[in-house]
């Protein structure tokens, strides 16, 4: 099992990252909660990881905080929730929002996430209520309490945001609607995705 990796951030295209660890490029998948607080390209970072072994692939999932990794590991223990859906849940809601949904039996908010139907939402509430990990925003070796992302704005951040949302499970038409009214001026792909997900959560 690979517990963590430390190296230079080479590229980031939600939900995928490439980290150079002593000359070896690790391709990892991460939730948007991790993307929001990434350092700029070329800087060093530490990611807590979880390795999923399948017949056709070995997939390394990565998180900036141990609490996010623990939440991921707790989610995939729920019947019917695989790694991809767990990543989508972590991308679509903050840990605080997810805790609120579980404790308040808030099925409508959960079913707004792609891949989460009513039965899955009800199962999440039942199975997660007694095993939710504590929320801790200060357990990351990379966190300074501020969003320290500094990176160049891409030439087409809206299109990148739409592609990322589709990868996370949203339908292409829905992803386009989510970002259509968001101004791309001086915004990174991650900023647009954050605003789009906040818009869905607020409905």
Overall mean pLDDT:
83
Helix and strand run = EEEHEEHHHHHHHH
- Name given to the CATH architecture of the largest domain: Orthogonal Bundle
| Residues in helix, % | 25-40%
How many domains? The number is 3
Give a structural overview:
The structure is a single chain. The chain has helices at residues 32-35, 66-75, 83-92, 95-103, 107-111, 118-128, 157-167, 172-179, 189-201, and strands at residues 4-13, 16-21, 24-29, 44-53, 58-63. A hairpin with a 2-residue loop joins strand 2 (16-21) and strand 3. 40% of the residues lie in helices and 19% in strands. The model is unreliable at 137-154 (pLDDT under 50). The chain has nine helices and five strands; from the N terminus they run E-E-E-H-E-E-H-H-H-H-H-H-H-H. The chain has three domains: 4-63, OB fold (Dihydrolipoamide Acetyltransferase, E2P), CATH 2.40.50.140; 66-128, DNA polymerase, domain 1; 157-201, Ubiquitin-associated (UBA) domain (Helicase, Ruva Protein, domain 3), CATH 1.10.8. Helix 2 (66-75) crosses helix 3 (83-92) and helix 7 packs across helix 9 (189-201). It is an alpha+beta fold and 203 residues long. The protein has a five-stranded mixed beta barrel.
């Amino acid at each position: 099992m690979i517990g963590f990796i430390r190296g230079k951030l080479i590229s980031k295209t939600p939900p995928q990252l490439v980290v150079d660890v002593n000359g070896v490029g690790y391709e990892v998948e991460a939730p948007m909660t991790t993307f929001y607080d990434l350092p700029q390209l070329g800087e060093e970072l530490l990611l807590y990881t979880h390795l999923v072994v399948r017949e056709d692939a070995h997939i390394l999932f990565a998180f900036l905080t141990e609490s996010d990794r623990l939440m991921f590991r707790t989610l995939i223990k729920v019947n019917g929730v695989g790694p991809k859906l767990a990543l989508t849940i972590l991308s679509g809601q903050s840990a605080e929002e997810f805790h609120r949904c579980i404790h308040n039996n808030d099925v409508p908010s959960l079913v707004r996430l792609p891949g989460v139907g009513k039965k899955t939402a009800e199962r999440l509430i039942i199975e997660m209520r007694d095993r939710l990990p504590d929320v801790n925003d200060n357990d990351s070796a990379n966190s300074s309490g501020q969003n320290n992302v500094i990176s160049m704005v891409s030439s087409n951040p809206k299109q990148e945001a739409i592609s990322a949302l589709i990868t996370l499970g949203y339908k292409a038409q829905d992803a386009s609607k989510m970002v259509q009214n968001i101004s791309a001026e001086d915004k990174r792909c991650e900023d647009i995705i954050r605003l789009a997900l906040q818009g869905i959560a607020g409905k």
